[in-house]
Give the backbone structure.
Amino acid sequence: MKMHKPFLLVLTVLISFSLHADKNKKAAKALAKGDVDKAREIVIESLQDDIVNPGGNYLYSLIYTIDSLPDYSIDSAQKYILAARVDWPLLTEKEQGKSIKNGFYPSLFEVQKERVDSLAFLRAVAQGDVVAYESFLRQFADADKVPLARTKRDSVAFSDASEVNTWQAYQRFYETYPEAEQVPEAQERYKVLIFNDLTKDRKLSSFKDFLRNFPATPFRKEAEEQIFEIMTAANEPESYLRFMAEYPNSHMKKRAFDFVFAIDQAAYNFQYYSRYTPTRAIQDSLDNLRKLENIYLAPFYENDKYGFLKPDGAVLFGPTFSSISTDYLCGDIVSEFLLVDDKVINRQGGIITEGEFDLVESIGAGLIKAGSEGKMGVWHKSGYQILPRQYDDISLLDSRLLLISKGEKAGLATYNGRILIAPQYDDITVEGQFWIFIKDDLLAFTNIKKIAAIANQEELRLSFVYEELEKLPNGDMIGYNGDSECIIDKNQEVVIPMGVQNIYPMGDNWLVKQPFGYRIFYNDTRKYSDNLFPEVEFNSQWLAWKSDTAWALVNKQSARGIIFRLDSAKLINEDVALTFKDLKGTAHFNNGSRVDFTKGDKVYVLGDPYRKDNYDSKSQFLVIENSKLKKVYSMQGKLLFDLKQGSLRYLSPNYLVVENRGKQGIVDTTGKQTLAIKYDGIGQADAEGLVTVLLDGKFGSYHLATGALAAPKYETRARYFNDQLLTTTLKGATGLTNFEGKTVLPFEYEKVQVWNDSLVMAQKEGLWNITSLDGKKTYYMPFINFQVVRDDNEEKILKIYTNDGYGVLSSKNGVVLAPTYNDLVNLGSDTLPLYFAEKHVREAEFYVVVYADAKGNPIKSQAFRGEEYDKIFCQ
């Protein structure tokens, strides 16, 4: 019988399965008996017989997991168990049944697979590195241990990143393993490390670049604080404005605003005000703050609490404070802070700092120094602590930097409190653009820009080579070291190097005295003159020098030529220089005028004796005198007059005193006699042009401007009272006269003082009265004594005392407070008083207090018991 090929194939497979099924059963029995070699041999034979052999693959996988065998292999075990799983569906139902009957079925395969997976997992755990876990996860992707393997892999990977501990390592971790539970921690560490790494040089550019590249960084605040401190280290208003413009949303913007406002107010007279107050609302707010800081405050006491009043009586702070500084009880509180209840508060009521302090004081530009037991700190009036309480002293230098002291050493901190230079120098001072450091008796200098650059990690280099530094009027500096000197200009460049020399300013140039003579150093070319002069005279206008045996003269400020071949030269002052040649002398004037004289003539200057250190050509006359006459010239070389007899003395820019045969008189600049030459003495003119004259032991007066003469008949010198009257004494009494000596107020008073244009204060028999100029009419009440509250051109205010008590008189407002009070104190300023007036009711043992304004209008009234009154009374 003929068979079809499909039937033959099926029959072959059935026969084959039957054969390897039997072999697998035998192999299983051999394996069960421990005969691994026989089992392997049978399994290999079985697998060779049929490639679809789940039982054989299972058994081979099982053999490969016996760890005592040399060919132990988890990977091979996985290969065969996976093959078993693949083969099983390829069997027919009948074959599957027989396989199950022989002991080989899918659940058994799954147990082996799980066992192989576990062994693979344990292998990865044993190796313990990321590569092992990654290999497991790739090769055993469906294993039950995959989640645990992934967790362990993440842990090992994070540990590896932690060991490297760079932001790059953490970045690789969270980018490679985005699902790892360590990702948040890795990201946090990444942010810290990348911030620290990219800003490790601590420079301004690094912090700016970091914020530009990582705008959402959690270190934005720290970066902005560093940027703020570095940018504003020199404490210039422009730097705060730049910061606010570049970082308009920064948490440091308010501090920048508060700082620039205080600095602008203190050092720049609000020059930058419009730059940081862009809106009307902000301007109004700051205007109110400025007004509040520019008024005085006065205390009041109510319900066992203290409060503070404004000058108009409005309450700034209600009675909420249990204690205030005792210095405040006398009012006129102008400080920008208040000491209340162990707190320092600003005028807006904000707390600046708290605690018990021995010392609290303003050091300028809105900064307040406070401390106790010798340790000081600094706070800004807006409430920021600038420096902790750990310094022996702190002050503000040049409205720029804080001078901090510990022991005997000084250092510098910024206005914001960043330490630039720890205390290490003997002292630090400022002269113009020069910041001068002193150490071991030697000096070095630098500028604010270089000091501020320390905040940007720039090194400050100081050269301690000077024993002394002297600032010149033009801002340059002379440096001294022993016999050596040098010139440093205001830009701190050395103009004339250090050398054994003496250097003198000479206009825009310098005269340098060297061991063998003088040379001129020209500032514009920075070169010395070619000539060396053995002798030199100079001032701001003239230069005279000797070359070989001849002198020369030049006016430094004019284009006129040099005068050569002179026998000698002499500089009288800045306006006149004298030259001599043969028998001829010449006076040279600044304007080019010249006056010749004979060599034997006497040439001298008459000048104001009180202006020796403050030269003024208007207070000088040149006199050329010979045996016959004196010629008087102005400092412009104009001949004013000749005098044949007598001597001359300076009196004023327009008058001279002439003395002849022991008598004195006055002439003007034309030589005209304005006061006869008959007086025993003539004094110097005072500021009002009043000159005292003396004749036969009596005093009179002469007024230069009007020519009015009060004949000498008084016992004391006349004094200027106002522009129409003089005060003097006659027969032991004081009165008033006009400039001609006519009596206006009779000589019957002990003292006379100005009250206003039409009234005077006159004391008679111990009592003061306000009287008319002629003394015929008396105003107000007499008073025994007085204390001046205000005395200026606008108003005179007196606190007066009478038998009935204290009161207030004003030259403008009359009786402000009737003299009925037991005590009276001005709690305000001289120009805007606020009176605290008290009446003591002895019978009831209480005190009635009235607060009154400058015109006497009541602002506030109170009644106190004795113990209460003591708490508000100004001692």
